[in-house]
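lol so apparently i was supposed to do this last week
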Amino acid sequence: MLRRLLLAASASPRLHQLIMAAPQTRAIVDSYVAGDTADDAVRVTRALRAAGLLVTLDYLGEDTKDPAQATAVTDEYVQLLGKLAAEGLTQGGAAEVSVKPTAVGLFLGATIAADNIARICTAAAQAGTTVTLDAEENEAIEPTLRIAAQLRADFGDLGNVVQACLRRSEADCRTLAARGVRVRLCKGAYSEPESVAFTARRDVDRSYARCLRVLMNGPGYPMVATHDPRLIEITGSLALLTGRAPDSFEYQMLYGIRPAEQRRLANTGAQMRVYVPYGGDWYAYLVRRLAERPGNLAFFLRSLRSKT
Ligand code: FDA
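anyway here it is w/ dihydroflavine-adenine dinucleotide bound
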């Protein structure tokens, strides 16, 4: 309930201002975000690679309202891929990128977003790595899947994200797994209505387990994005049952969340990828992380009270 309230309230300009101005905010941002610049992102990638972890980088920002801004976001990804490749960090897909379709113009028209994503995929292919399209609010899901399906003709390794909270996702997993593509499965970070989504935690977790079974049994490449110990355990059991080799799927977690568990999984010989966001436009990302964690939320509310 608190989570839904905070996500709804985050659209308020007053709350936006309060969060940005709260003195404690920066420390929380730093725990979840690599820094403001591509150089910060490369530095963090270097350190994670040295620790045996794979990386996916997200340039923060979403819901772009202006084609020039969508082009600027695309340029940033192209430059970032060049910097990562120059340091040998992209070899074999070790560091890849995650892109929010609305940041590169999804709501400005399907061709703008498709053209921008194709440019990023071209740069990624030149760097020897891959691109994964993040899943955003429900209205963005259908056009995102459509663009990915089109672009896969040229970029077969373009990945999609499926949110277990959506009622449609088990069916999406069947379609995507049948095509043998890279699919990241997450619980879903957006607040969606009952008509399209499971809203009780228990139902989301059950849906996750069902989707996971479809992906692990299918011919695709599952990317299991969760910090939930029970789901991580189920993934290990499914890998044994289905005879999946460690290099035929991967675990994924967010930068700054359960880092010891990230290292533990990597040390077992599993592939472990860390999602690393960077850039100055961190507000929406931060609010989603706060909303997921009651402890962080309480801390954040105390900061706000001290400002009002
Ligand atoms: P859950 O929220 O139940 O958390 C399980 C445990 O993890 C908690 O008990 C706690 O220990 C720890 N934890 C979780 N969140 C925490 C936090 N914020 N701070 C501290 N500890 C925390 N969503 C989406 O809608 N579209 C997308 O494209 C993506 N992409 C994505 C990529 C990757 C690599 C990951 C890991 C996640 C996403 N997500 C996402 C976010 C995802 O949907 C979900 O909101 C979060 O991962 C939290 O869900 P968990 O599965 O971790 O379970």
